[in-house]
């Protein structure tokens, strides 16, 4: 695990500039004439309660503040006291070394350059995220190199390379306060020119002196075709999509077994994706039943506590869908789109368009986010992300190495 010098933590005027929409809630400006008069102990205590995005707006970071932010006592207190602030991380398809962070609360954008943190000798791409950490995977065929990064603290850690050669597997990441789990599934390279969905591997680390290296889990269900995208984690289980036909595959860590769930309306789904939804799992997909005279729509379902049935939560409003449909490229069917869920929010991006649509589940509200003003050539890839200065689980990889 490595760490950049904390003296290089930038202010919002450099590495973390924010773009705010004129119609979004007003952000409070930090009045230095007030802050400098506060007793140091009170000032430090206030910092403990600030959400991580608030540090983006600090215009001046003294050496004392920078050293405080990375002191063990501050990080421990910040974990306990700082409010959680679900956000969304967007990566341009043309440049995965740039991270654009959307704060749904303030509807502001922040730019976090990642190039200094990523390896230059192998191509990598974002694959998963959990609890303040981003997971990048090597794109070359063969055993995979996985890299965990905290873009705020600039902590970096490598996982041991997995033993099974794969092409473009699905990857799941679950990070807790004192443990982390990684699952790689599908796209086994059985020859230099052929892949087959045969197996999955799991890596687990916690605070015990010993650790679990990569180990093969139970075989994948027969006739599955796993999509090379992220997994969703909920209540000790990883979920991912299988295509042709559509199915939801479930890996149970406790029983070390795979199973599958039938998705709703699987004959008429387009671009189905799994999302984290509150404390559970949701499924988002375009629905097209032209011959049955049912209007095109994008719908949201929630997996019920029984783990086998789905309930429709909402569907995109007609005027919203018309704009989203155009962003997808129009045509006879709704084109591909990206989405990710975090808390009670789902973020959508369509095709090569950079417009972001947000669905607020508690309010059943669809709204467009302010445009991202950073370069977005080729469209965006979106992940749920929770900015955290302290991510103690990344230190477990030092114990596991």
UniProtKB/TrEMBL annotation:
List compositional bias (Polar residues) regions by residue number.
Answer: 10-28
Q: Which residues form a coiled coil?
A: none
Outline the extent of the KIB1-4 beta-propeller domain. Answer: 127-316
Identification of the protein by name: Protein UNUSUAL FLORAL ORGANS
Q: Which Pfam families match?
A: Beta-prop_KIB1-4
Sequence segments annotated as region (Disordered): 1-28
Under the heading InterPro entries, the entry gives: F-box-like_dom_sf, Gal_Oxase/kelch_b-propeller, Kelch-typ_b-propeller, KIB1-4_b-propeller, SCF_F-box_component
Species? Rhynchospora pubera
């Amino acid at each position: 695990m490595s760490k950049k010098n904390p003296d290089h933590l930038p202010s919002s005027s450099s590495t973390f500039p924010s773009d705010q929409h004129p119609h979004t809630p007003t952000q409070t400006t930090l009045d230095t004439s007030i802050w400098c008069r506060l007793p140091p102990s009170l000032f430090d205590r206030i910092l403990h309660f600030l959400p991580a995005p608030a540090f983006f707006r600090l215009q001046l970071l003294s050496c004392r503040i920078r050293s405080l932010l990375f002191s063990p006592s501050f990080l421990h207190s910040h974990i306990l006291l700082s409010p959680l602030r679900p956000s969304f991380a967007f990566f341009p398809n043309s440049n995965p070394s740039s991270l654009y962070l959307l704060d749904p609360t303030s509807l502001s954008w922040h730019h976090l350059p990642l190039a200094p943190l990523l390896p230059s000798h192998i191509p990598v791409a974002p694959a998963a995220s959990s609890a303040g950490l981003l997971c990048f995977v090597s794109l070359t065929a063969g055993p995979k190199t996985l890299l965990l990064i905290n873009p705020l603290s600039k902590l970096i850690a490598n996982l041991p390379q997995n033993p099974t050669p794969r092409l473009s597997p699905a990857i799941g990441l679950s990070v807790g306060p004192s443990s982390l789990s990684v699952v790689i599934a599908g796209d086994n390279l059985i020859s230099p020119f052929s892949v087959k969905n045969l197996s999955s591997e799991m890596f687990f680390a916690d605070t015990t002196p010993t650790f679990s290296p990569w180990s093969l889990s139970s075989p994948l269900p027969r006739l599955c075709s796993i999509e090379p995208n992220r997994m969703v984690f909920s209540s000790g289980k990883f979920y991912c999509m299988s295509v042709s036909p559509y199915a939801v595959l479930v890996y149970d860590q406790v029983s070390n077994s795979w199973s599958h769930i039938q998705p709703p309306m699987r004959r008429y789904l387009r671009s189905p994706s799994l999302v984290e939804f509150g404390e559970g799992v949701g499924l988002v997909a375009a629905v097209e039943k032209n011959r049955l005279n049912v209007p095109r729509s994008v719908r949201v379902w929630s997996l019920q506590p029984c783990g086998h049935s789905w309930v429709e939560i909402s569907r995109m409003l007609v005027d919203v869908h018309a704009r989203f449909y155009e962003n997808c490229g129009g045509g006879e069917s709704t084109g591909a789109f990206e989405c990710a869920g975090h808390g009670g929010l789902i973020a959508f991006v369509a095709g090569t368009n950079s417009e972001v649509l947000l669905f607020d589940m508690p309010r059943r509200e669809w709204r467009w986010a302010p445009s991202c003003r950073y370069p977005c050539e080729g469209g965006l890839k979106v992940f749920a992300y929770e900015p955290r200065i302290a991510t103690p689980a990344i230190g477990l990889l030092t114990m596991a190495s």
